[in-house]
Every structure is written in C-alpha cells, then in structure tokens.
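#onboarding

Welcome to the new folks! Below is a worked example of what a typical request in this channel looks like: someone posts a single protein sequence, and someone else replies with the predicted structure as tokens. Don't worry about understanding the tokens yet, we'll cover that in week two.

Example request:
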Amino acid sequence: MLLLCVELAFVAPYARRAGDELFHAQPAWFLLAVAAEMVSMGAFARLQRLALRTGGLRVRLRAAASAVFAGSALSATLPGGSLVSISYRTRRMRTWGASAPLIGFTHAVTGVLSTVALVMLAGIGRTLAGDHDQLAGAAGQVSAACAVTALALVLVQRTSVLYRPVNALLRIWHKLRRGTDGQTSADVLLGELAAMRLPTRFWILGLGAALVNWVGDFVCVLAVCHAVGSAPATDKVLLAYVAAMTAVSALPLLPAGLGPLDAALVLTLHHGGMPLAAATAADLLYRTLNPGAIGVAGWSVLLVRRRSRSGRGRMGPQSPYRVADPVHERGVEHGRLQDVAG
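Example response:
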C-alpha cells in the first residue's frame, strides 16, 4: 500500500495530461498491444513445455498456459509474488506427474534462457542505438551464462562427480535426523538427472521461445506508445524496456515491479524524446494489460480450478463413479508420462 501511495504521488502531477492522452488513444494500436502480450504469454508457456518434455512429460499447451497465467497473476498481485508464483507452478507440475529433478530443471533452464534472451535484446538495442562500446559487456554476460549452463550440464551428465559431496551432505543429514531414506532419495535424484538428454534442438527452440516472450512484451510497450499518439524511435523504446525489466529483476519481491518498473519506463522514455505526459499515459496503458488484464485472466483461472476441485470433492462420496485422475489414467506408459491434460 505504501508503494502504491508513492507511485500515485509520483504520477499525480501528470495524471490530468496523461488522462487526455489516454482518452484519445488509438484502438488499433491498443489491439496490437493486446495481441503482442498474448503471444508473449504463450511463448513462455511453450518454453516450460519444452523443458518438461526433456524428462518425458508431455503437457498440453492449454494446461501450461493456464499455469503461466495463474502464476503471473499471483506474482503481480501479492507481496513476494515471485516466490508465490514459483511455488504455485511447482505444485501444478507435481499434479502433472513431474519429478523433483525435472521441476528444478524446468525452473532453472527457463530462468537461464530468459536471462540470456534479455541480454541479447539489450545488445540489439545497443546496436540499433549505435552504442557499440556496450556490446562487449553484453557478449560477456551471455558467454558467462552459457558457461555456467554448460558446466551444470556436464555435472548433470556425469553424476558420479556429485556422489561424494552428496554423500557428505547426507552423513550430516543422518546425524541430524537419524534416518535412512536420504541415500535412496539421493540415488533416485542423481539417476533421474543423469537420464535427462538435452538435444541441440531443445536449446534452439528454448532460446527462440524466450526471445519471443520478451519481444512480444516489448512490442506491447511499443504499441501503447503509438496508441497514445507518440512515435518514438524503436531503439529508444527497446532500451527503455530493457532498463525497466532490469529494474524489476533487481527487486523481485515487489508485486509486478510496482514503482521501479514504472519509474524506469517513464523516465527512460521521456529521456528518449517522448513528452512526459505521453510516457506516463503509455505506462498506464501498458499496466492495464500487464499486470491488469493478465491478473484478471490468471485469477479467473485460479477461481475456476478452485470451484472445479470443490465440485469433485462434493460429488466424490455421493457418486458410485470414480473421478479419473488425468496423470494416472492416461499418463503412465512404459515408465514415462505421456500427454498430460492438466
């Protein structure tokens, strides 16, 4: 609430002029912004599906998209929403039949590919702006992320290297808990990690999906700038967008980057040549879509799922028919989960 008051105080002096810009917004550009945001969300859902498929788990796009929308709604509307969103998506993956190693891998690889894609987008913005001095730094960041990923993949494929440190940790765990289940769990975990095979096609498609995710969101920002009657240079908007997303990543516990994202976007757009009132109006229009419309769609998914579970719970004791579990009824075949509807 305090952050919202601070943001309102910052926006208040320009609210009247921004309201005039919004009143005269062009519908065609706004519809383009809506379409671009939907493409962005769909690309992130496809990225998660690709990661889950490496473990033999096939999830339908509709189920993956509903989880992404619901997770985004939690992330955008709750304090510490990023952690809540990860927890929710983890639970959804478990209901689909994903193992703990596959869930951890999915979260990790989506984060890595998204980071690399954003850095690449920043490099494109610097190139368009003619700022070649920053390209070496961007290339170094991409190289570092790729090197860390490659090292992790080598360890995953050679789990024998991990047995000694894992066993050392397990001995400490046994002393604290006096249990024997830890060794079995570690063997299963390392075995499942070793069984994962990541073809080159996965990295190409995954990076492509991550780029489409960011580019779709950027096109949404560019479209709302045109919708309020301003036509800024594409490279200026791209640099403003990257600056805003970087500000959000620095403070991940704030819901929807409330405050830092808006300040970074408005000020950078204004510095790039947009009138301050138009930049504020563009930010407000963008926020009606992300997190506004996405939040409404995500909470609708959560409510529908809650009502559906409640309905199944009420009919269970009264009906002689058993409610089918999509994971166990259609999922298990030759030890691998296939075609989970979610």
